Known about the structure:
Layout: H1 7-21, E1 34-39, H2 50-68, E2 72-74, E3 78-79, H3 84-93, H4 97-112, E4 125-126, H5 130-145, E5 149-159, E6 164-166, E7 171-172, E8 175-176, E9 184-193, H6 199-204, H7 214-224, E10 226-240, E11 243-250, E12 261-264, H8 269-275, H9 279-290, H10 295-300, E13 305-313, E14 320-326, E15 337-340, H11 346-355, E16 363-364, E17 383-384, H12 399-412, E18 416-422, E19 427-428, E20 430-431, E21 441-443, E22 449-451, H13 473-476, H14 478-481, E23 482-485, E24 488-492, E25 496-497, H15 506-509, H16 522-528, E26 531-537, H17 543-557, E27 567-573, E28 576-585, E29 588-592, E30 597-601, E31 607-612, E32 620-626, H18 637-644, H19 646-655, E33 663-664, H20 667-689, H21 704-727, H22 730-747, H23 753-770, H24 775-784, H25 801-804, E34 808-815, E35 818-826, H26 831-840, H27 842-848, E36 853-859, E37 863-868
Parallel strand pairs: 1-2, 1-26, 3-4, 12-14, 26-27, 28-33, 34-37
Antiparallel strand pairs: 5-6, 5-9, 7-8, 9-19, 10-11, 10-13, 10-18, 12-15, 13-14, 16-17, 20-25, 21-22, 21-24, 23-24, 28-29, 28-32, 30-31, 34-35, 36-37
Bound molecules: ligand ANZ.
Ligand ANZ is lined by residues 227, 249-252, 255, 265, 329-330, 333-334, 336, 338-339, 341, 344-345, 421, 423.
Amino acid sequence: MEEQYNPSTVEASAQQHWEEQRSFEVEEDHSKEKFYCLAMLPYPSGKLHMGHVRNYTITDVIARYQRMLGKNVLHPMGWDAFGLPAENAAIQNNTAPADWTYSNIDYMKSQLRPLGFGFDWSRELATCQPDYYRWEQWFFTRLFNKGLVYKKYSAVNWCPHDETVLANEQVENGCCWRCGTTVERRELAQWFIKITAYAEELLDDLDKLSGWPEQVRTQQRNWIGKSKGVELSFALTEAIAGIDHITAFTTRPDTLLGVTYVSLAAEHPVSLALAASNPKLKAFIAECKKQSLSEADMATMDKKGMNTGLVVTHPLTGESVPLWVANYVLMDYGSGAVMAVPAHDQRDWEFAQQHALPIKQVITPADGKAVNLKKAPMLEKGVLINSANPFKAWDGLDFTAAFEVIADALVTSGKGKITTHYRLRDWGVSRQRYWGAPIPIFNRADGSEIAIPAHKLPILLPENVKLDGVHSPLKADPKWREDELDGEAVERETDTFDTFMESSWYYARYTCTDFKQGMLDSKRANYWLPVDQYVGGIEHAILHLLYARFFHKLMRDEGLINSDEPFKKLLCQGMVLTESFYKEVHGHKIWVAPAAVEIERDDKGNIINAIERTSGEKVISGGVVKMSKSKNNGVDPHNIVQEYGADTARLFTMFAAPPEQSLEWHDSGVEGASRFLRKLWKTVYAHLASSHNLTVINTDALSDKQQQLRRKTHETIHKVSDDYGRRQMFNTAIAAIMELLNEVTKYAERDNANGLAVEREALQSAILLLAPITPHICHALWRALGNRGELIDAKWPQADPKALQRSSIILVVQVNGKLRAKLNVAANADKATLEKLALDDENVQKFIATKTVRKVIVVPGKLVNVVAN
Ligand code: ANZ
């Protein structure tokens, strides 16, 4: 072995070895327990960043650890390759999105390689490959034929100047990013998948996901948003367009006697029917249609409305209640109508204030606190008051009782029923962009649609295109649209799929990327699925994870797989943060790369002065923030690997913070990690340089020092195994291994055979325990120590219970809770012996001599507490 640790040669040779051996290519093996470890697939933006490095280091550590436990481990990698950025980059660089994407993939792969991640590259996939998206197209046609897909008019951002649809990120302050024209809302026919049909199961199955962070489960629960309520009807005095009553959904039937008006969504059929003969209402509806549709915006926007002049009948009191059309009522929630209770609902209260409508309090706080409805509505649940005759007896009922009584009254009079609603909406999958999978639908001359039959799939996305910067090449080329089906001329759909479609099932396709006969090879898919450990950013807590769960259930119901959920365990890694600096130029912040700044700190580490090296100018600290291009504070993984080696980068990443917390990047931390690896190398080198012959440990002839080191070795194995497995706290695992190495340098006795054997055991264990984190150096040292076989398949070490035993322990003795003695006692001493030793101690005697001992509490192995007065 070389005396000097040279990471670049060590790493290149280990990587070459793994590549030659195809060490990470795996197949189903029913004789072994499987473990599927997966990182969320990256978007090929062109450059690897530290967030990627952290993500894949975590999965790689887990994958390698599980393999050392003897499992058959799958750890694949691929590319989420469709999406808008490729279109923008292609326009900027005057290339085609396909070329840009594929060259980025090549480049990023070349950046990943030197990091030594144990990916099974034979399963690599890019979602823009026809081999992949053809099955997504096929699956969509299956859903279509099952009635789980439908077409509906839905709003998009439209630039009237460019005559094109804009993605949300292309709208800047309400204007087109390209030409600055004010963006409008437009209704276009678009495709939806009925995720709402699975709402109940998606909600219920969250309970099965005990391996997920609670926070993510809660976010999904809220997103699905199940609410129990009542649907009730307000009769119209005369039928409008054949409708004789308005149905409203409420979660607060307890407030029913506080209704002072009813409001309809602009798109409600009654609103539309009335608008036909009411130009003012028509104009108002047109105005409503222009505004944003998000619920968040609904909450904050100006509450606008128009009185229809009609009244409806209150289902319990029979009173007449005015009927309004209001901009804050959504057509696709509940029934598109609200029973308005301004006293107890924020939006209704704002609306009533603006339009001078009555506010009637019917709920009061249970604790009798006063409320001032002039200032704000009373939103909390409480008890009923002011119940109109003949319902006076309801006064005093709490929410649950009132819900029941009122729902019951509505049900018996045939005016209402108890229902549940979900906030979750169906998934709109149409995008009017080019760089995506074409939606496999034929439009027929008669206006109907047909799912493209399997034999005509895939519908290929042309890759050799020129982008004019405005229109999708699919839409700009009338020829591309033309097709025929059994002699009938048909037109292809020119919209493409939302890219969440591709990321919803890639994890399943990895189990059989080469399968040509179908979407999934069920045998292989069922062997590997579900993913045992999924790792990715918390920003995907809702949409990606919900869509993937949904797709999994759809694939199950198609008979492709047999599990209910895709991801057994989920780990959401924290962000990578670092220092940031800027200077102010004409009122603008110019961000300066931290590497270009000379920093002076006080002894607490606070920055007292920061100077840009090249200009000598003072710069201002922007604090420790997320590493990003926009703050110019990215640390290039490539440079770190060049300077220190991949193992140092990996070690620092895992040591600096537990995976779920944010990681602060510090050059000094990287230095520290590198120092530790050099020390490990040096220690192994010195160990091998010893002239003694290695023998097996003679446990009966261990010196105290040897015994201590042995115990430390096995305590470390015990702790580190728990840190890797149960706790997933790799930082404390590393700290424990570092401590072990310190003990080696302190206690090793290389001048006798037993001492050398004990040291060997300690070093060998340290290498095994570090192997998942710093695989290259461990690979080299493992061989240097003369081991045969592959370190990646070496058995994870087991703590020897005998070595853990201590012959003596330190016993703490307290008198009345205060520490009075520390005694070195036999580890197996019984309670009576411990009590006697404690009471006989000289110092303890001093504190109890003049007192009566009332009680002695003995915790064997730890302490004795004497109670005396
Ligand atoms: C009367 C009422 C009184 C309400 C009160 C709330 C508080 P969640 O819980 O999110 O499901 N609502 C019903 N349909 C609507 C629609 N199409 N557009 C806008 N709002 C609608 O919300 C249910 C509540 O949202 C319902 O309960 C209804 O207002 C409103 F003190 O009815 B409530």
